[in-house]
Design goal:
The complex is a heterodimer of chains A (about 550) and B (about 525). Chain A has about 550 residues and is α+β, with helices and mostly antiparallel strands. In chain A, about 20% of the residues lie in helices and about 30% in strands. Chain B has 13 helices and 16 strands. Classes of the chains: A alpha+beta (about 550), B alpha/beta (about 525).
Amino acid sequence: MNLYLVLLAACLFVTSSHASQEEFHESLTLKPLQDGKVTSHFSFRTLLRGATPRNPETLDKEDNPQHYTLFPLTLGQILREYAVTELHLTLNAGKWDYDRWGYPEEEGVGTGAELWAWMGESSAQSVDQRWSGLRNALSGLFCASIGSLDEQRTTSPDFTFQPKGYLPEWSSSHQIRHGTLPSEHVCTENLTPFLKLLPCKSVSGIATLLNPHKLFDADWHGLGVHVRYLHDVGIEVRLSFQTVADPIRYSFVGKRDWSLRSLFDRAIERSCPVATTSEVRLQLPAESTAQISPDPSSLDNGYATFDISKVAKPLNIAMVWPDELKFEYPLTSTPEPLTHISVHRTLKGYSQSRGVLSIDVTNNMPITIQTSYLESMPWLLQFYLHSLKLYYNGVSRDDLISIVSYTPPVPHSRPTLLQAVLTIPGNSTLHLTLDVIKPFLRYTEHPPDAQRGWDLPPAIFIPLLPSQASGSPNGTAMSINGMEENKVFPNRNRIRPHKIYTPILLVDPATPDFSMPYNVIIMSCTLIALIFGSVFNLLTRKNNDLPIERILDILLNKCIS
Amino acid sequence: MSGQQHGTTVDPSKLAFETTTTRRKIIFSYWLIVLLAIPLWWKTTSIDRLSLPDSKVKTLRKKEWKFPVYLHLESHVTSHPIVEVQKSVEQFLTMDLQEEDGISVHVTADNSTLGPGHYRIALEPGWTDPLVSDRSLSIGMHEETDDLSVDISRMRLSSTLLKLLAPPSPLSSSTTHRVVKYSPIYRLAFTLLNEDASSGQASFSWEIEKAIKQYFEPVMDALSVLHNFTIESQVQMHAPLAFTPSTFDFENQTIHCLTQEDLTVFVNSAEWALSSSVSNDPVIHFILFVPSAERSPLRILDHDGNPTSSNAFILPQWGGITILNEPQQHLTLPSLTSTFFVFQEQLLSLLGLPSLPRSVRSNEVESLSKLFTDWQLDALVRQRALENVKESQQTLESITALVRQIENMPVGEDVKGDVQGALNELELAHSMQDQSISTLYHSAQALKRSSRAFFNPGMLALLYFPAEHKYAVYTPLFASVAAPLVAAVLREFAAWKKERKAKEAKESTESEGNSKTK
């Protein structure tokens, strides 16, 4: 009997320990925006407890067998195969409007594809080899052209892209590889493999709402895959999907009321049986005229939370403004800025060889702040770094920029990397200009598609906020430590370094007429043939039919007459 | 008229640059340059086609592949003296062994160490079933008196040996399609598939690592001379079927059925994320399928439409599937036992392990201390080696035939190297036939290199750039340049002929004149 009890206890222990090895948390955060739109942010977090990233020094040995329950095997294999410590992949479509929407929940909102990874150095296989393998593997996994993020687009911006997790202390150091492909567009073919990585696919739980027909109709949409290593905890894979939908567009009468059914055409019918936590959080707008249904499981901190495993299903969260007959758009000048800084970047100049890159950075805070500035530019646009000028109130102030690192481009092979720190006085705008040239492309470097120019990756700004600001210019509550800053800017998220992606640019380098090579061949062949013919004739022609003098005479007579 | 006014007439043919010899020299030098340039042009525009060792590939067919097998006889039965048994067994086996069995049997009386290719045969008194252990066979034989029963006993021994040494090859019989193609490394992918975990009937986790350690590691160790294995496993919560199984009432219970046709389309590869393409090693899948609550119990029907007792089936060359109708939330090792025994069987069957002849018993297998006998393993090694040899021979023949047929196909150094390497490996494999394991190793190398040569991407490079395009580009230049060159030669030739005629005529008139003056 005792033996049975011990066995039972052992069994239970094994069961519980096994169950706690992998955890799956899913959440959906909904946020009505001031311009009537609604952001939804899906986050699916799988935690592999006790796991560590593969040490790249062991790449030449056979790997341990991989056994996963909730963790996606296909992604896990890629991570092990290329010994990736940290990985971030985002595929977005649309332009994130920071001025109207504020900071996104998921900070990687650059248009197109962006991939960055931290990998340990190894003597077995170099970081660059694995980076290339990783790109191709992810490309296959997500049906995206990430494979073309080659050396011409890869940089190592270690200053801007700090690891989000922990880098294990191995004998060798870690390196970052980063690449963007702004012309890549996210669509259903990327979502399908993305859903396959989820333990509950899109059959049960929050992921039911991921309906491609609605997601890709949204004003802004993007998916992300984030892998990081948390020290003493394990490896975390977070799959995210973010959209900005416009309920006013769906409404016939121009109201901003929305529900899960109107946003996604679906409601949550069943809960995912393996999710440890599964909740929908709804940020309540500041004005209290809105009503939500059904009643949330809990209400705190301006958020209404619905626990999927407890609430009645099907769950169709709805938010209505009963007093509003028609939504009035706020005036264009927003009453209060939603981000610390606002950035506008444009490429000026109409010629096909030269231009000016112009950037306006506005500090929305009353204090002087610093912001990091990153340009990771393919050689399709080359900077004249000496022409970098900073203007503050119309006065040139080159002391406000300090360049952290600069890697000049190598045409046809390497991109430019410019990392700098800008200092911006409070409530003012810095104006930055930089002369650029647009190089000539080789005949084979032009894409086979219809020519629309080349998309250039976004610049990335990270406002560096003083963690313990001692004094502020106004002497008011500007000591920036979370709560107080939230009082000053209640709409702003809590303090953490936020990346701000500028919109992408389009450059149109000189493009040849592609029928030209054949024309050139024909033309030069004709010319060569003509020259050859006349030289050959001159050398070999027999002139004994007519004496030279006769010819001259005939010609002379003709001229005279 | 006017020429005379200006001065003396100059005969143009008398000018230095108008002399016939200078002109001919010029034309000649043009042609000389053209002719000299032709090899250069040929070299720069031709496709790099190294010659492949065609004749060597052709002679491969003539090679005889026979693994020598030595049977060391031991007789404890007086009516069966070794010499006689040896003679009759040898006679019988050489008569019944086919060319494709690829073995040559040598029966000896001497004792030597046993190993692959060396077996001990002990004839014991009494009439017992043939018993195998390691590489020896003991077979009971009566003390016979009459010739007929002596012959029958010896026939029995010989046919047992034939079945053991050259079992009906799974590679040549109807089960050919079931056995996976040979690869030195396989990935074994175990998947616990829940049709719909939110329906209430599901298994969320399993003790896969323990199960593999207990049931698969012995198999993998035993097969390590043939293959290496890498292992992966996953659990899926939602794996819908692509079809709806039919239902019918059976023994007062509604059951859901899979017909034999359903089994072939059972795997829903569009929805089930079974394996990634991170490596190129072939994958063998093992799936434990848990039907959803509304599809339970799920049974397999036989060809006549009656439910079978079996709950597992093999998909040829793909893997094995087992259906689990009564799942537990967490599958412990004891509850996985039957499943993993089935998986084990499926793996051996997919890898083509021949089964032990029905009449032969083995204590090791019966006591579960071993999964299969060394006789079976040796037979599989020989069959696989032969299969590889044949396959690489065929591949090499196809390459040479293809290269011969398509004249635009480039053949680079790497292709030639691989073909040569494959030939060398085959040579080595042939010379080591007394060690079947080294033969297997070299034949696998040969197969690898020959298929690498066959699939070399460089061979496709110019296939799509036809010669017509080249001519289209060159014609505007060459045609217009060639025309005056050819015309000049023809004209000069005509002039030379005319000149010679005139000279002859002149000479003849002169000689006539001379004769006349004489």
